[in-house]
Amino acid sequence: MAEEAKIHCMEILKGLYKFEKEAATEFQDWAVDDPHDSFRHILEEWGKRNKDPKDVEEMDEFIKKNCSEWYNDLKKSEQYLLR
Question: Are 66 and 57 in contact (CB under 8 A)?
């Protein structure tokens, strides 16, 4: 179920990014760094289990398009698994 896992991961990542950027709720103040940290962790876990170059490229493009600010941070990181 690699395709389903990839899509599920993409939607979680997009949701975390949108929460950080758009949320207007008191809960955002409770977890200032948590969405970004969770984003990295989920992406790393997905990357450990999925080595298909086509899926990795698709995930990279998805993040670039939908999570642009964090994409730039990720690309600077030596731990970025989607290189």
Answer: no
Residue 37's domain spans which residues? 2-76
The verdict on residue 83 lying in a domain is no
Number of structural domains, the chain? 1
The Cα 9–Cα 65 span in angstroms is 15
Check the CA dihedral 44-6-56-58 and report its sign: negative
For the segment 63-74, the average pLDDT, to the nearest whole number, is: 88
**H or E element at residue 8:** helix 2-22
User: pTM here?
Assistant: 0.78
Report the residue count for the chain. 83
